[in-house]
Specification:
This protein is α/β, with parallel strands linked by helices and 383 residues long. The protein is 19% helix and 20% strand. The chain folds into two domains: 9-159, GTP1/OBG domain (Spo0b-associated Gtp-binding Protein, Chain: A); 165-338, Rossmann fold (3-Layer(aba) Sandwich), CATH 3.40.50. A hairpin with a 5-residue loop joins strand 5 (97-101) and strand 6 (107-111).
């Protein structure tokens, strides 16, 4: 099977730039004896940012760029010249990307809006030159500050798709077929379980030029919250959806029981999903007559809006769009900003290769040791 271009989590190594060291230079010009200190400050190291970009929908562009490093700040020089600031690195990610610490699984931040910029690692501050230490009692300071060291971190970027409606159902419930009917998306459709191996997005057209985004999530089975099937990997995409559309086929042995199994798997994965609005669609209803529809309607879960549909004949598709639009535009629907991201178990994720940390060169190691020794000396002297 050809490797999929849908990449929803990657592990990368990030490092900011170290600050440049301050200069301990003295002014030396003709006819100006004892010119005094004129050492400039070091430049700051480059920062590492995350930036949301709506033109990306996967993390594929980061799969083969696993090491993101900003440049170091330049050293200060004579004539109070400040060193050049290090170049920042901006990591562009799809909207809906969540960042975790790769070692502990701790949640760090998330990016949900286009153009939103979040600082992931701060560059080291540049050291002060000896000009800053000149006083009336110390007119010739022969020392300067070293720059602050760089910060480094291994992080996991996880994509949680941003969609208005998420399709939830067992394999072969008709999710991909519905998406292909109501939108221009072309998901793979076949008569066997787990045909869909990656989420698909489609834009559903509504009346008066309005539209909303629908996401087809790969089939969930009982035990998905414990890692069975494909559910554990793709359940996180449901967290971002404003509304969940549960899909149960009309030929199921017990429609209410299947709905409850699906609902319980979501709640086990994340209790926050209990607050999301839910709609139930009974698919493949073209095989039912009016009497059967009325009989099944009496056995459906209470309090959940429902509609009988058939993607093949178009039965109930218009009613489904109306119902979804009404539910999406209620004042109390789930907001993306309310999501509480829990820490993850990093041992459950598999990566193509092991992490590799770029070693610092000898000069950088000496600078870091000098920086630590400088501040240890400051503490000892009480400065």
């Amino acid at each position: 099977m050809a490797e999929s271009n849908f990449v929803d989590y990657v592990k990368i190594y990030c490092r900011s730039g170290k600050g440049g060291r301050g200069s301990s230079h003295f002014r030396r010009e003709k006819y100006i004896p004892k010119g005094g200190p004129d050492g400039g400050d070091g430049g700051r190291g480059g920062h590492v940012y995350l930036c949301g970009n709506r033109n990306y929908w996967t993390l594929l562009h980061l799969k083969y760029e696993r090491h993101i490093m900003a440049t170091n700040g330049g050293n200060g020089s004579a004539k109070r010249s400040t060193g050049k600031d290090g170049e920042d690195r901006v990591i562009e990610v799809p909207c809906g990307t969540v960042v975790y610490d790769a070692d502990t699984g701790e949640f760090i931040c998330d990016v949900t809006r286009d153009g939103e910029r979040v600082m992931l690692l701060k560059g080291g501050r540049g050291g002060l030159g000896n000009f800053n230490f000149k006083t009336s009692t110390n007119q010739a300071p022969r020392y300067a500050q070293p720059g602050e060291p760089a910060m480094e971190r291994n992080v996991i970027l996880q994509l949680k798709l941003l969609a208005d409606v998420g399709l939830v159902g067992f394999p072969n419930a008709g999710k991909s077929t519905l998406l292909s009917v109501v939108s221009a998306a072309k998901p793979k459709i076949a008569n066997y379980p787990f045909t869909t191996l990656e989420p698909n997005l489609g834009i559903v057209s509504y009346r008066d030029g309005r539209s909303f985004v629908m996401a087809d999530i790969p089939g969930i089975i009982e035990g998905a919250s414990e890692g069975k099937g494909l559910g554990l990997r793709f359940l996180r995409h449901i967290e971002r959806n404003s509304l969940l559309l549960f899909m149960v086929p009309a030929d199921a042995d017990d429609i209410k029981k299947e709905y409850e199994i699906l609902h319980n798997e979501l709640v086990k994965y994340n209790p926050e999903l209990l607050d999301k609005r839910r709609v139930l669609a009974i698919t493949k209803s073209d095989m039912l007559d009016e009497e059967l529809i009325e009989a099944l309607a009496r056995e459906l879960p209470e309090g959940i809006p429902y509609v009988f549909i058939s993607s093949i004949t178009g039965l109930g598709i218009t009613e489904l769009k109306d119902l979804l639009w009404r539910e999406l535009n209620k004042e109390t629907f789930h907001e993306v900003e309310r999501i509480v991201h829990k820490n993850i178990d990093v041992s459950t994720l598999e990566f193509d290769d092991d992490e590799y940390v770029f070693p610092m060169d000898d000069d950088e190691e000496e600078d870091d040791e000098e920086y630590q020794a400088y501040w240890d000396d400051e503490e000892d002297t009480g400065k």
